[in-house]
Structure formats: C-alpha cells, structure tokens
Amino acid sequence: MSPKNILNNLLTSGFRFNENEELLKNRFIQLNSIFISGALVALFAGMLRLFMGPHVLGIVDIGCAIAFTSLMVFLRRDKKYFDITSTAVLSIGFIVFTAIILILENSQSKLLWYALFIVSSFLIKGYRFGLIATLTTIATTYILEILPFVNLHVENKDLILATSTYICIALFSAYTAIAHERNIENLKESNQKIEKQKLKLHSQLRTNPLTNLPNQYALEEHLTKFKNNISLIILEIDSFDTITSEFGKPFSNEIIKKVYQRLDKIASKDFLLYHLFANHFAFIIKDYTRDKDINFMHSIKNLFELESIKYQEIDISITFSAGIARKNSEKIIIQANAALSDIKKRGENGYKLFENSEKYDKQQKNNLYWAKRIKEIILEDDLVVYYQPIINNKTEKIEKYESLVRARDKDTIVPPHIFLEIAQKTGYMQIITKTVIEKSFQLFEKSQIDFSINITNDDLEDTSIIKFLKQKIRQYNIDPKNVYFEVLENINTSNKNKNILKELKEMGFKISIDDFGTESSNFSRILTIDADIIKIDGSFVKNLDTDKSSIKIVETIVVFAKKIGAKTVAEFVHNEDIFNIVKNLGVDYSQGYYFSPPLPQIEELPLKDKGKVAKPQTNNTLNHLYI
Hints:
The protein is α/β, with parallel strands linked by helices. The chain folds into three domains: 3-190, no CATH class; 216-356, Reverse transcriptase/Diguanylate cyclase domain (Alpha-Beta Plaits, 2-Layer Sandwich), CATH 3.30.70; 377-590, TIM Barrel, CATH 3.20.20.450. It has 22 helices and 16 strands. The chain has helices spanning 3-12, 21-52, 55-76, 84-104, 110-124, 127-146, 156-205, 216-223, 240-247, 249-264, 292-305, 332-346, 358-379, 416-425, 429-443, 457-460, 465-476, 495-507, 523-529, 538-541, 548-564, 576-584; strands spanning 231-237, 271-277, 280-285, 309-311, 314-316, 320-326, 351-353, 383-392, 397-409, 412-414, 450-454, 483-488, 510-516, 533-536, 567-570, 589-590. The strands form three sheets. The protein has an eight-stranded mixed barrel with strand order 8-9-11-12-13-14-15-16, surrounded by four helices. A five-stranded mixed β-sheet has the order 2-3-1-6-7, with helices on both faces. A two-stranded antiparallel sheet has the order 4-5. Helix 19 (523-529) links the parallel strand 13 (510-516) and strand 14 (533-536). Helix 13 (358-379) crosses helix 14 (416-425).
C-alpha cells in the first residue's frame, strides 16, 4: 500500500473519497472535533500554567493553541468539509504542535502530552479505539505510579489534568461519533423517503391523472422494449371540443372516463391501452398479424356504435378518428399521428393505415423547411395579400372581396395551404392575421368597398385583437360595416369566443361562417354565432352539375339561411353551368375561378358589357370586371 493510501486510510477510517459524500462529511467533522479538542486542551493547560507556573511554558501552550487553531480556520475557509490536502496539513500541524510541547515541557509533564498524541491518533480511527487507548493510558499511568521501583516524576495535578483531558476528548469524540451514526440513520431514512418520492413521481409522470392509465411518456418507454412485430393505433374522440364548449370541462372529463371504462373492457395483455392526453387514446397490439389492427379498429367502432355514452341524462354519441402504424421503429408514434392527421383532413369517424411513401417524406421535409422559413418571411415583410372578388348573383357585379394571404418565397408566390398549418403549430397565426388586417385596411382605406378577412380560434383567443382593430380603424379610416370576419363553422364556441364575436358585432363588423356544411355541421350552433353570411363549402358547390345530393344540401342551407336572415355565398364556382345552378337555388353570391382567381390588386374599371360578369382574362388585374 502506498504512503498516500495509508494516509488516506488513517484519516478517513477506510472511506474512499469517491464514495458516499455524506459519510465522508461526517467523518471529517469528527476529525475536526479532535483537532479542536487538542487546541482547547493546550489552551486550558496554558492558562493553568500562567497561574501555577512555569509561566513561560504556559505562554508557549497558549501560543501553540492559537497558531494551530488559526491554521485550521485558514485551511477550512470556503470549504464544506476537509479535502485530503487540508486534512493532511492539519494532521502534520497537529503532530508538530504536540512535538513542540513535548520538547519544551518539563519532564514531569511529558507523559501527559505523549499520551494525548497517542490517544488522538487512535481517535482518528474512531471513538471506540480512542476510549480503549484512553483507558489503557490512564490505567498504565496509575499502575506505574503505584509501583515502588518506578518514578515517573508525575505530580497528582498532572494525573488529574491528563485524566480529565482524556475523558473530555473521549466524550466529545464519542458524542460526534454517535451523532455521526444518527446522521447515517437519518440519511438512510431520508434516502428511503427520496426513493419513495422518486417512485411516486415516476408513476405520476407516466400516468394520466384522469384515468390512471399509462400516458404518452409511458408509451414511448414501452415501445423501446417491444420487438418489431407490433401495431400502434392512436384514437382521437371526434368533435370533443364541441362537447367541452357546450357542456363544460367537468362534463367532458366524465365522458373521457366513461370512454376509458368501455375501452378497458377490450384491453388485454395483447392489446395494451394508453391515455395519451385529453381526448387521445392509444392501443399497442402485440404480435401483429395480418389485419389484426384493422379488425380491432372495427371492434372499437362497433362497441361505441351499439350504445351511446350517457351522463347526467344526456346521450353522447362517440366516434373516433384513428391513425395506425405498423412495425416498431423510432418514428412509429409520428407515423400513427401522421395517418390520424391525414384522416382528420378528410373528415371524422374514419381510420387510416400509415403508408411509408415518398409523399410523406416530402411532406416532412416541407414542414421542416416552413417551420424555419415562416419567421423569416414575417420579419422580411414577405407576407402578401391577394383579393378574390365575390359576385352578386342578381346584378352579376362585384360587390365584395375576400382577402387571402400568400407568402413570397424568393421569386415564388406560395399559397396558404403550404404554410398556414405549420404557422399555426409554431405560434405565428395571430401575427399573420394581423398582417392581413393591416394590409387590407391599407388597401381599402377611405373606401366603401366590402371585404372579408379570415380569423381563427387563435385570433379569437388573442386578448389584444379588439384593441388592435380599434387602432387600425382610426388609422385607416375604415368603416367596420364594410368588414366581414370569416370564421370556420366548427370554431370553439366557448363563452370567451362568443363574447369576442359579440363585441365585434357591436363595433359594427359583420360575421361570416366559412366552409359551412363540413365536419360538425350543426345548424343550432350557427344561431349562437349570429352570422350575417354563410359561405357554402366548395366541396358541395364544385359538383353541383353532376351530383344531385349536393344540390339538396345546398338547397337546405339556402332555406335555413333565409330563415335566420343570413346571406349565402357559393365558393368554388368554376364554370357557367354551376353559376346558373347556384343562381337558380337562390344563393345570393358566388365566388370562384369562373370569375377570377385571387389577384394582388384590384382596379375599378368598367366592363364593355356593363351589368354582366366577363369571362376571366389572362392579365394580372381585375380590369375585366365591373364594380
């Protein structure tokens, strides 16, 4: 064993410095107590000698005690406990300190200080060894003093001083050691509590508090343990925002619990159920075989179609949209979510199996590009607004415009479907809407032309939107009655959103419902919005010349709109036949490429044949249209 290891073993009772730091801390506290005890003994002895003599030695004792204490304080400054270097210096200092006293003391007291040094060395190894050394030294001293043929030249006062010193040091060290053992016990209890807290926190982090099911974090962990032959189904409860907005959060939470209870009936060791968040659940299907996941999806659908969820005497019909991904990989959750997102775009109550295609990879690259690019476009003022005319079907003249955002990406004008979804997910939607408002107000400044601007749920939740609009009205001298705000039919009709829409109406703005007829088409919800215009979704209009069911849907919407005093606009009017059909159905306005695509500016130039809508031209202005 090297000298360094021997010193380390001596000073720390065998504990290594890279082991439990708390134990080392307590051991060095005990060691520190020994050094303080030695300094106090020297100070006490020196004071006695100043009174009893010899005085010179008393001064030396006190000086040594002060010098050693100062050295100890200097080495311990700004330290939580001794390190190996400072401990070694203090130990050497203690030995030198004791040696000086041994050399300078009279012969009658040498035994006292020699014994003190021996005892202190034993105490470094632990208080039990120190007690044994103390008792042994005291017993030997008294025995030798009693023997007639041995003369130690030790006076009674020296024996009393030695005995009391040994006892003080032993008791002090015993106290620190006992405290050390208690600290160890407390440390064990504390560690046990910490471990319990860790286990509790671990469970909380991996459990959904509403259903106590494992959550997405747990799902991600579990997927790393499964082999390749699994399938993942991610389920989303359809129209859940509508349930929450209509009945409140506590009600929707109870619905989620009841959905979980029903799903749990078909869960098993081969079909593992997870509650990811809010209205999203998931199943891991182990040992995947052909169409096992598809058949299971049909079982889920049948389970909820047979019986609705009932709570507080209210029946709620539950349907799911689902994304399915097969073969375990790092991207399996992303793939299932991509399939879910794709089926949601087509409508609700369906499922889609992820296909690892070039189209998906291209879309992912496009999303990454626009997630970075959209901020640059906003900062460089490369958001531009295009305007598409809306035609009065009776007069066949332009009566309004819709403001539509575009992005200038280098030398290309990019349509909104390329970047708006990414902008919304990255938090830039509110900035884009305000930019469209600003540029539209600037274009229509001091005019009486009607124009519409699209707003989203994000915009309605923007607390600064009302203040912003009031400021821009004054700045550009805009009459609010000429401005329509288009909102999607399936917006969140929370009390906050309804209050914002009501305040917009009170300011003089008009409200238009965009894409009516898709997804959660609920005619009663329109009444809560108090719409001035209903825009019929283009998916019905574009097929009016070939699809009789579309004609019935459009006719129903027109009748409903007339009853509530709202005007109607047909989108996607792309040929003369469809234009004639929407006029015959009683639709008030038309919009589409049959008249004009969205263009970067407008011009008020008359038509050659006034009163009729001319066919689209190839130029970049609206000079073929009469206002």
